[in-house]
Amino acid sequence: MASLLMMLAGCNDSGSSQEVGQSLDDLKVSRVVGGEPEMGRRIIAAYECGVCHVIPGIQGAHGIVGPPLTDFGRRQFIGGVVPNEPSLLVRWVQDAPSIAPHTGMPDLGLSNDEARHVAAYLYTLR
Hints:
By secondary structure, the chain is mainly alpha-helical. It has helices at residues 2-10, 16-31, 37-46, 86-95, 112-123, and strands at residues 77-78, 82-83.
């Protein structure tokens, strides 16, 4: 309770809300249990996700089919349909059509581990 009050009090200071937001982003990254951002970056490159998306940190990722993933870690929703939460993001990058049947994002066939790594990397984009 005390930490919640400290966070709320900090929102009144200019600049403090950004620090609070960054710590919440860090919390999201840490909640992707077993996810390693660097492994995620390599998996994203290997699966050529940049054919469809603009993805910072991925060489040649200049796609215009899907939305740019710039600042993904700050977004409120995944694909505009579900809250941007770690467990949902892992499911989304594995098999987005199981969540949103009409999405253009394909079932990538990622393993659970691969999906956690990808999610961890996406949360670093802020």
